[in-house]
Amino acid sequence: MSYKVRIPANIKRDIASWNLPRDMLLEVYGQLLHRLAADPDNCLGDMVVPFTFRSFTFSLVDNQHFPPHHLFVFIVDQDQAKKELRIMGCRHSTEAPEGN
Amino acid sequence: MKVKNAIYRGKLRTVEDAVEAWKAEHHEAMGVRMFEEVVRECLAAHTFFQDIQKERWGQLWAGQIREIQTTGENFLRVLETSLIVYSLVEECLLRVKRAGYSVNGEEEFEKAFQELRSAAADFKSRWPFVDHQQIEESRAAFAQGESQSVEEILGELQGSDTGQH
């Protein structure tokens, strides 16, 4: 059974503040809905100390805009009893021009 | 990852020890040639640092870092130690210059120090560190029932607003 992913209002605002191209924004939410919700145990990385949350990390490439490489990290609170994944944090980083 | 950090910290300790030894032996800014050895060591350490920096970002983009927060914190500590050690070297460099001497490698050192400052600022702003305040805000939002499912948000984005719960 797939999990339900819930996003608090502040995280929704933070994601909007990244000003991603529309297609990429849809893809970001798509990753949460189709990848994370379907198989959290395989998607979630190690524990994020000092919390009991885990991270879901993925990168996307957009060759239409600069910079092309975008990295996304979501901090996730997994409630196994309710089959719910609560997004507690999110970070977005882009590749520097020199490739770092 | 940890191995290279350890090697680099060793290089920094060597520079720091050399600076302290030079300061103890050369109160009157004498021994400029000896100080140039310190600068050379620092520049060699800097080359190593550049390799580690490139590697860390490369691993992040390649999805090879599982513990992003811990890795970031460790590297940030390395950067902060570097800034302290470079400051010690710069302090001695200024002392030698004030005494009227020129130092081989001075320009390279200043360039390396500037690169290090930029790298530290860039790392702090772009590495995906956990934002503790954001997590607290999320807790509060969930407690107040201010959340939506991803399906609802996608629905909104696709033009079929299904309302907020």
Describe the structure.
- The complex is a heterodimer of chains A (100) and B (165).
- Chain A has 100 residues and is α+β, with helices and mostly antiparallel strands.
- Chain A contains three helices and five strands.
- Chain A has a five-stranded mixed sheet with strand order 1-5-4-3-2.
- Chain A is globular and about 45 Å long.
- The relative contact order of chain A is 0.23.
- The model of chain A has no long low-confidence stretch (mean pLDDT 90).
- Chain B has two domains: 2-130; 131-165, no CATH class.
- Chain B has 165 residues and is an all-alpha fold.
- Chain B is elongated.
- Chain B contains six helices and one strand.
- Classes of the chains: A alpha+beta (100), B mainly alpha (165).
- Chain A binds chain B through residues 4-12, 14, 22, 25-26, 29-30, 32-33, 37, 45-46, 48-49, 51, 53, 55, 57-59, 69, 71, 73, 75, 86-96, 99-100, and chain B through 53-54, 57-58, 60-61, 63, 66-70, 122, 126-131, 134-135, 137-139, 141-142, 146-151, 153-154, 157-158.
- Strand 1 (4-8) of chain A pairs antiparallel with strand 1 of chain B.
Topology diagram in text:
The complex is a heterodimer of chains A (100) and B (165).
Chain A: E1 4-8, H1 9-17, H2 22-36, H3 40-43, E2 44-47, E3 54-61, E4 69-79, E5 84-94
Parallel strand pairs in A: 1-5
Antiparallel strand pairs in A: 2-3, 3-4, 4-5
Chain B: H1 2-25, H2 32-61, H3 68-98, H4 106-126, H5 132-143, E1 147-149, H6 150-157
Helix pairs in contact in B: 1-2, 1-3, 2-3, 2-4, 3-4
Radius of gyration of chain B: 23 Å
At CATH's second level, what is the architecture of chain A? Answer: 2-Layer Sandwich
CATH homologous superfamily annotation of chain A: RelE-like
Q: Write down the domain tally of chain B.
A: 2
Which quaternary structure do these chains form?
Answer: heterodimer
Shape assignment of chain B: elongated
Average pLDDT confidence of chain A is 90
Determine the number of helices of chain B (DSSP H or I, runs of at least 4 residues). Answer: 6
Structural class of chain B, please? mainly alpha
Here the CATH topology of chain A equals YaeB-like fold
Number of strands of chain B: 1
Low-confidence stretches of chain B: 160-165
The helicity of chain A comes to: 25-40%
Please give the alpha-carbon distance between the first and last residues of chain B: 44 Å
Q: Quote the average pLDDT of chain B.
A: 90
Helical coverage of chain B, percent range: over 70%
